Amino acid sequence: MKQSNIRNFCIIAHIDHGKSTLADRMMELSGTVQKRDMKSQLLDSMDLEREKGITIKLTPVHMQYKAHDLNLIDTPGHVDFSYEVSRSLAACEGAILVVDASQGIQAQTLANVYLALAADLTIIPVLNKIDLPAADIPRVSAEIINLLSCTEDDILKVSAKTGQGVTEVLDAVIDRITAPTGKIEGPTRALIFDSYYDDYRGVVLYMRVIDGTIKKGDVIEMLATSANGLALDVGALSPMMVPGPELKTGQVGYIVTNLKTTRDARVGDTVTVKRAHSGDMLPGYLHVKPFVYAGFFPVSNEDYNLLKDAVEKLSLSDSALQFEPENSPVLGFGVRIGFLGLLHMDIIRERLEREYNLDLVVTNPSTDYQITMNDATQLDIKSASDLPDVTKIKEIREPWIKGEIIVPQEYIGAVIQLIIAKRGLQKNLSYIDERALISFEAPLANLLTDFYDQLKSVTSGYGSFNYELDTYHAEDLVKVDFYVAGNIVDALSVMAHRSESQRLGRVVVDKLKDVIPRQNFQVALQAAIGGKFIARADLSAYRKDVTTGLYGGDVTRKKKVLAKQAKGKKRMKRFGKVDIPSEAFTVMLKRD
Fold first, then answer.
1. Which of 81, 188, 302, 412 has the most C-beta neighbours closer than 10 Å?
2. Which domain covers residue 567, as residue numbers?
């Protein structure tokens, strides 16, 4: 296939705007997949993706249409995977922007458009779901024209579900998107935009060849990690693997390597070959850093090795996943895992429980904190229980995010109040037709637990939210510890701003009171900062009526039996152990 007949493009959109359905119709119309093999969301191969209706892992597919090679990359729509989206865009010359005709432009739509514009891509606007009764084509078209400065004629109106207008989209891809430009004879450079671990074949790389060629049997090198390997097999995906002799300039395909872990071949890395070596890395490579951390503990300590093995296997195919062993006096042995966001955490937890049959206790998610000690030593902690002696700390810095919220204008006041309640700062307010775009900055830790739920609640479900990590700010932060029956439970410890610590302590103590079962003795639940208690709730004891068997006689008999019971309860309080259920460790997620 001539280079001038290749088109590389991706589909970008907000969650649930119809990316995967449009990709299905394209594969059907181009004859890539036979009608009998067709099923909805064909590129979403994981059960979780189908159940949640979202794309978690991007998938490339090679189609042939009107004597052209079309390489489509179906990208994730969720904010947690925005780095993967940016690398996918770097592998393309064009992007199809899908907007729901009933919902209009959402926060993630804007974020993806900015990424596409930064990558200098040709954007083809597509208005999807025009067959819905709630579709408002004139209003949403005006929003797209306002955003992209395009004309009404540039916008393609389709229904991906019925197939209406999809042929025009394929024609527009050929007409509007430019062919790849690369040096066929020069040194080889290819961009990895995804990699995963196959149990039978090793690490498989999805890549776009920028310059040169990669042939079967070539010795390959990753420029960022300096890992060397062998190209055991190369080919295209349509959507199954179709082996070929080589991948040429401008083509998108896969390479099966003999590498043992995706840590050697990270997303965004540059691949070169020994016979046509290049030392120039492609721009934009980032080392993806997780910023949400949670402790994963097995319900039974006997399952610790199973959990460790399961996490290691998942990390083979997910280079963003980072973990380290953790030990808690209450929960025993477990692992502390770093994630890209709450959705990423949710997916990993479900995969561990489903694919590896594990019963897990997951602690409250937290973020990382940068600490400067009095002797100028720098520390990075991922859990409140790791905080060193406060007398030796000079300052604690927490991560802040830059966020954007799009809401109908009548909800502006409620959203700004919510941002202020989370210690956020409203930065800008602009209008897109009948809706408002609110830009703000806020501490990440305050948005981790229930911010998205509260946003949906105050905006009656109409608010959409997108964010990116900004910088670390020095704040007056304290560690709030929680005591159950006088014993500190380190897995419950949290970092909080001093102004919010008392309210947080009271809320969590009250939640613990609801979750922890009553005992035969009174149990004190306390929150403390250092040695000072800031909140307390008491779990009253069960009372057994020990005077039931007494009848007649002097009242002193009754007093004697009750005194004996009180003495026993005092002793039990000293030696008794409170059984803390697993729900207690996720009270922060259910804070309200």
1. 188
2. 479-586
